[in-house]
Amino acid sequence: MSQTTPLLKVSNLKKTFPVRGGIFGKKVGEITAVDDVTFSVKKGETLGIVGESGCGKSTTGRTVLRLYEPDSGQVEFEGKSLLALGDEEMRRARKDLQMIFQDPFASLNPRQKVAEILEEPLIVHKMGDAKERKAQVQELLRVVGLDKSHAGRYPHQFSGGQRQRIGIARALSTRPKLIVADEPVSALDVSIQSQVLNLMADLQEQFELTYLFISHDLSVVKHISDRVGVMYLGRMVELADRDELYRQPLHPYTQALLSAVPVPDPEVKKERIILQGDVPSPADPPKGCAFHPRCPHVMEICKVERPAFADQGGGHFVACHLMDRS
Amino acid sequence: MAQPVLEISQLKLHFFTDKGRVKAVDGVDLAVHEGEIVGLVGESGCGKSVTSLAVMGLIPQPPGKVVAGTIRFQGKDLTKASPREMRRIRGNEMAMIFQEPMTSLNPLFSIGNQLVEAIRTHRSCSKQEAKNMALEMLKKVGISRSGILDEYPHQLSGGMRQRVMIAMAMVLNPRLLIADEPTTALDVTIQAQILDLMKALNQEFGTAILLITHDLGVVAEMCDRVVVMYAGQVVEETDRRRLFRNPKHPYTQGLLKSIPKLEEQKKRLYSIPGQVPNPLGMPKGCRFAPRCEFAFDVCGRAEPQLLPVEDGHLSRCWLHQEREEGRGHEPDHAIAQSQ
Asked: Of A159, B127, B265, B297, which sits 20 to 30 A from B305 (CA to CA)?
């Protein structure tokens, strides 16, 4: 992890979606899903991104892989810009960039057998002949803890946890360097969730994978990540080493978020910060700091000026005007 | 102790499907007393939601059928109540909130319309009186703008919709509130608001709450007593403190060990091997035995009973029962019982 160039470098990423209305579907507004987001991921590490629904964490993951085209900003993978690639080059680059989706029901083709699902990426990327591919499929099944005999079955014959293993096997099939995992365990029960998290950790070690791990579950993100970024209303508000972030959150939103997580221990008494109100609509975000209408420490400057996302020392980035005062 | 508000005993609710009989709830005992918050915990398919829907009389019959047991609500057996009687109780003395606040409100009617309808179904009062009651209750759940009665569900956020659902459930001051995963669809900061609100209402009105959840964190914050279900049966029941400090059943222990926690950092999580059994083919003997690291010969043969391990702490496991009878000794009476 001592390399100087990060595996993935995202700078000032911005993605907006048009809001259409009226009978002619004219553009009547704009939702800024990702707004000026900057971060980097080192080789072999796991960067967790947390945030509540609608904060733009999934859009960030998809935009990084160019499943959505960003409006502006830069995405560099191994020092090369992904955004400059043409369609064909991008298709080839995807060999190194894979994704695991949240819903193990919707992300597998119900008409394909498991063997076909796992073989398809190999065919697309022209990896090996038929015999090698078959061996590779069996190896993938073994790696994710499924049985060889499962190759001939269809997705509906598996449980949720097994299906997520198939999704992971498919992501692994092209031997990628970076995997974007979007809520990979959110649809699973706790006893199955821990199996999948352990599997992901084992695979990371075995294949030197780098994860961009997106989740709303702060405990899960803490468990698996080396560094964690917190998003609110399309913006990254805090980014730090895992232990640092959870021990000493600096942004008021991160503090509230962490204090709101119910602790499975009745004897732990926490001071809970209850935030007032709801997350504002991303179609009409508040001026200045997006969090100011709910912030317990709001100041005048917060209502007019957007705080810079600045390093407070040791790679602990925070976007908050309170930092300027201390 | 006073008579419980809700007392379920030996409830068996089975579904008769083309593929066979699904024993969704298979011999469940459960009691909720006045002012108490009881947590019903378990993973998907363990029968926790079916149990709560059975109490409300919301299981379509067929294919579902109460095969045995009773559900006593304030002393009255609901399994024998007529649909007319159920309608009178439901929404009045007993109310329910659901996981999905979007699908449980009618999108075609305004919030005021739906609340007034709920009130006027059970109380004879004028529309204006009902409106006033609705507004007052909405204030209690933290929605104080008066225009709310004319708004429609799609205009509200998830947290707001769940507040409206709680207001609708609580407006007639029910004795029992059943909350089925009330915060699962919500974000953590909104979840904290809703849990706070439910606790405050429980204290203010003394409403008994049956809280169904898969989130052990929510249980630790909310519940007085906890009932853990696995594969249609109760496997452990105790107070909140003992459940987290000294869980007895291997399933509960495994569940507690497998959740990642904010305060500690482990390289690997514990995980319960295997998966929940197929409801059409439950394993013989203890239903958890195939996944249990402590399983021994008896577990695969005979079904353990839910018995007290200590005062107020029940567990369905041969480990405790064996120990008392001397390990290795064949519990013949238990085999006879389970047949």
From this structure: A159
